[in-house]
């Protein structure tokens, strides 16, 4: 079984392979009680959002890591994969700008940012 940081890094790696933009890995352990890490990334189209989401889910499932909860859909512009200790947010650009999770969680430690 993968450790939480390994799950988060795997999600970042897959998002990058699927050409996600502005990928951010936050360590939220000091500012949050419900998870350890957030992965936040953007996709430019509905098709890309779906591809990022499906590939992260599929690759982690092969590692024995199943999402505890999923939310959103491509039409909403925000997809969420909740792996308990790691929460992956996949946004369309407008929704990411609107919700501004980076600002909301600005006290979290940035582990990695790929722009």
Could you explain how this protein is built, in words?
With 115 residues, this protein is an alpha+beta fold. It has four helices and six strands. The protein has helices spanning 4-17, 46-62, 93-99, 101-104; strands at 21-27, 37-42, 69-71, 78-82, 86-91, 109-114. It has a six-stranded mixed beta sheet. It is globular.
Sum this structure up briefly.
The protein is of the alpha+beta class and 115 residues long. It is 37% helix and 29% strand. A hairpin with a 3-residue loop joins β4 (78-82) and β5.
Q: How many strands, which pairing sense, and closed or not: the largest β-sheet?
A: 6 strands, mixed
Estimate the helix proportion, in percent.
25-40%
Number of helices: 4
Compute the average pLDDT: 96
The ordered H/E elements are HEEHEEEHHE
Going across the major beta sheet, what is the strand order?
A: 3-4-5-2-1-6
Task: Please specify the SSE layout and strand pairing.
Layout: H1 4-17, E1 21-27, E2 37-42, H2 46-62, E3 69-71, E4 78-82, E5 86-91, H3 93-99, H4 101-104, E6 109-114
Parallel strand pairs: 2-5
Antiparallel strand pairs: 1-2, 1-6, 3-4, 4-5
Quickly list its features.
115 residues, alpha+beta, 6-stranded mixed β-sheet, 29% strand, globular
């Amino acid at each position: 079984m993968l450790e939480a940081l390994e799950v988060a890094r795997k999600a970042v790696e897959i998002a990058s392979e699927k050409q996600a933009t502005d990928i951010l890995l936050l360590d939220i352990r000091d500012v949050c009680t419900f998870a350890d890490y957030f992965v936040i990334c953007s996709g430019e189209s509905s098709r890309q959002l779906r591809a990022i989401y499906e590939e992260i889910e599929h690759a982690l499932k092969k590692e024995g890591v199943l999402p505890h909860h999923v939310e959103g859909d491509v039409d909403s512009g925000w997809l969420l994969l909740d792996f308990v200790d790691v929460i992956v947010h996949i946004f369309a650009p407008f929704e990411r700008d609107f919700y501004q999770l980076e600002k909301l969680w600005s006290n979290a430690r940035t582990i990695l940012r790929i722009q």
